[in-house]
Amino acid sequence: MHIETAVRARREILAGLSVGALTAVGGLGLLGGCGATAESAPPQTPSALKTGYDRVYRDMYANWWDSKGRVVPARTLACVIPPSGGQKRWGLPAIGEQPALWMEESYHNFLYWHWKATGSAETARMIASQWDCTRAQFGAPTMAGDGRDATIYASDDAGWVAQYLAQVFEVTKDRSALNALRTMIPATLKRFRDPFTDPVKLPGFSYSRYGILYALPGGDPAGQGTSSVYEVPLAIAALTVFETTRDVSYLQYAVAIFALMQAHFRQSDGVYWGNINIDLRRKPYLVSTQAYFGPPQQGVSAVNILGSMAMGVLAARLYRVTRRREYAAQAATITKGMLKPGIFLHDSTNGFGKVFLSISDPWTDAFFASAFATEVLPLPGTDPDGAWAAALGRTARSILAQRVEGGFYGGNWGGILATPNANGNRSYEEQAAKANDGAGGGQAIPQQIMTSANSASMVQAAMLAER
What InterPro entries does the database record attribute to this sequence (predicted)? Predict the structure, then answer.
């Protein structure tokens, strides 16, 4: 099934869902006081998973949207320009401080895939409204630059900003979003360039042969001197630029990053390391930001589930653009490899069987889950027996069963661990409480927009993949 056909099919699946999700919020349309109304849809009997997704959608709306048409994480982030000198904290800023754009994008990504699936005009207006807010919040020069002044702290943030701009352009057709994307990718590659090797020059810009730095000197101490699989989101966004402008430099860059990951980040079929030493003269060049190379566990792993899903999506999109069958074959290989037990799939502790675990980053691990379900799984021969979709479904049901009062969703996709992981934690809440020298506020609690949005995206992906 072609990607476009799959999207249309899933829109039909979701048609009835959007009505329940949109009208249940205080009887208002999704823009609250803006007077929007939900589209009508034929009645249908929803599955338990669709009903669960309906509730997730309403929870996300209630907690992270305001009546003025903006993402405002309840009681934690404000969509305003911060007062000068506002002190930033790791995790979530306080009210009145400027939120990081990548935090907002975690929810925006969920909205975007809802729009992709349903074609909802309500959701399109939400995305356009948030785009207006974002430009006022950060300013056009910041959005189009390398992010050093407000939006990009480590190079993984650049991937989320690039994804946001690509999504906004697709929904709104606003060329300013595309122009910002087209300039911020080369600017980011220059800012985080590899200091050990000469850059590879393309007609329009240059990229680093072994990947860009994850963090600059003075940044995240755990990521010093490393490149990371988090460059793949930048490469995926680069394909949006190529498909729109036909600027071949962006295609060449995406192809090069796919090849880099296959050559140096691939641990085995479907499994990719999170980081490597960017200076390959250092031996061994494999590194772990958590100083751990044992079997993957929730909260501690040197391999990266987000990276595997992102590589599947990059392969699918390269296949769509180039029609080279080896990319479709790689997408199928990645899909199969991700099902190997004990890496990403683990026994749940709450009765849902083998489920995917958030082993790397409970704020971003599921960012590409909906894209994977929509663009990778429908490729011929990729998930012939539906095993991947079934694992997604079990994971989603486990997440739904752990809904926290107030409509929040935590990062313990398979339940509280039966025994502590290598860091001595049985849950992400326990891990978060130990952060900042025991002051708490770390990664990850359900009330953080990134945590809830990440888990909500996993539920969304399962519903999209349901057969």
Answer: 6-hairpin_glycosidase_sf (IPR008928)
